Each structure stands twice: as C-alpha cells, then as structure tokens.
C-alpha cells in the first residue's frame, strides 16, 4: 500500500484533533461505559468531522460484494468509514473500521478480526490504506501492556483520552483508551 506512513500520521492527528473537541469529550463523558451501542454515534460524528476536513470526503457503511475463491456465493462486507481524497480514484481511498468495547481483552480480539477483514478486502478492492481504530473504557496505565500486541503491526499506537478534559495526569476521573493499527503484518 502506498502512503501508509503519511496516512497513519493523518489518521492519528485527525483523531487527536477530533478527540480534543470539548463537545465530543462531553458526549463521551456522558456515555462513559453506560451506553453499550455507541459505535454508530461515533461513526456519524467522525463522518461529519472528516467531511469538514479539507483533504477528504467521507462515506459511512460502504458495502462490498465479493466472490471469494472456493465460495459459490458472494460475500457481503461493509466498511465503517471510507475516506476519499480529492482525486476520487478508488486506489486513493482510505478504509477505516471502528470498534467500541468495554474491555481491553475484547479490544484485541475485535481488532485482529477487523484487521484480517480489511486485509482480505484489500486483495480484491483497490485502496490506498486501511486502519482499525478501537476505543475501550476504564483505561488504567498500571494494568495495560499493549506492546506485545502492537508489535505485530507495522503501524500502531495506543493512547488515552482524559474524559474530564482537565489535562492533569494524576486526575482520578475516567479515562478511555484507544488503539489505531494498520499497515502490513
């Protein structure tokens, strides 16, 4: 895939800017693990955010129908977000899968599943790059060792969001963790 490094930087910095927005933080603080199905909300918010980005247009829940080798029926797959660059060429599209989970252990499993899905799709669908972004509640630096998991990916980052927005690293308020992975294994 061309442009992986640049795409990783753009996805990471765009996500950081999105998460720095006070309105988004307030909504996430309200959700704070109490609402289970908030992934659709996040998709819509990110679609709106990327639509306002000068480099991208954004499509949500794009579906693909693939006839995989050894299969008699076409398999339907959907991708949460597809970022299109100004060129409008399919090989310039950036594919993003989102996940919102409660536990870190679940996060690893769903990230692996989404990564494998996008890796398969990349064999049949022209794209610039693909990325998996997952959020989880109850981030705690003392019990999080993501380094072994992230080492399996060319591009990966693990970070946290201070939901109260105070910026104090010693704050006891809730924190949410997130992971971005992409590139080739």
Give your account of this protein's structure:
35% of the residues lie in helices and 29% in strands. It is globular and about 55 Å long. The chain is an alpha+beta fold. Strands 1-2-3-4-6-5 form a six-stranded mixed β-sheet, with helices on both faces. The mean pLDDT is 84. The two termini are 12 Å apart.
The value of Rg in angstroms is 17 Å
- Relative strand content: 25-35%
Instruction: Please give the count of helices.
Output: 5
Mean pLDDT over the residues: 84
Strand order of the largest sheet: 1-2-3-4-6-5
H/E series:
HHHEEEHEHEE
Q: Any idea what the shape is?
A: globular
The first-to-last residue Cα distance is 12 Å
What portion of residues is helical? 25-40%
Which assembly state applies to the chains in this document?
single chain
| Number of strand segments | 6
Structural class: alpha+beta
Low-pLDDT segments, ≥5 res: none
Biggest sheet: strands, sense, closure?
6 strands, mixed
Give a quick rundown of the structure.
The protein has about 180 residues and is an alpha+beta fold. The protein has five helices and six strands; from the N terminus they run αααβββαβαββ. The protein is globular and about 55 Å long.
How are the SSEs ordered, and which strands pair?
Elements: H1 4-20, H2 22-31, H3 39-51, E1 56-66, E2 75-85, E3 94-101, H4 104-124, E4 129-136, H5 147-150, E5 155-162, E6 175-182
Parallel strand pairs: 3-4
Antiparallel strand pairs: 1-2, 2-3, 4-6, 5-6
Q: Which short descriptors sum up this protein?
A:
185 residues, alpha+beta, 6-stranded mixed beta sheet, 5 helices, 35% helix, 29% strand, globular
């Amino acid at each position: 895939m061309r442009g992986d490094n640049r795409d990783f930087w753009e996805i990471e910095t765009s996500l950081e800017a999105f998460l720095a927005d006070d309105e988004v933080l307030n909504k996430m603080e309200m959700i704070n693990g109490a609402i289970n199905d908030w992934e659709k909300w996040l998709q819509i918010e990110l679609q709106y955010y990327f639509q306002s980005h000068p480099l991208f247009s954004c499509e949500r829940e794009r579906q693909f129908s693939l006839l995989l080798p050894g299969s008699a029926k076409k398999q339907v797959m959907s991708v949460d977000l597809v970022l299109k660059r100004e060129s409008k060429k399919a090989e310039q599209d950036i594919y993003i899968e989102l996940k919102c989970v409660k536990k870190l252990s679940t996060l690893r499993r769903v990230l692996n599943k989404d990564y494998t899905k996008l890796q398969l799709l990349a064999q049949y669908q022209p794209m610039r790059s693909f990325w998996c972004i997952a959020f989880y509640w109850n981030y705690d630096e003392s019990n999080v060792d993501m380094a072994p998991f992230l080492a399996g990916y060319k591009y990966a980052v693990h970070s946290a969001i201070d939901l109260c927005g105070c910026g104090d690293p010693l704050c006891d308020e809730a924190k949410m963790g997130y992971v971005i992975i992409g590139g080739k294994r």
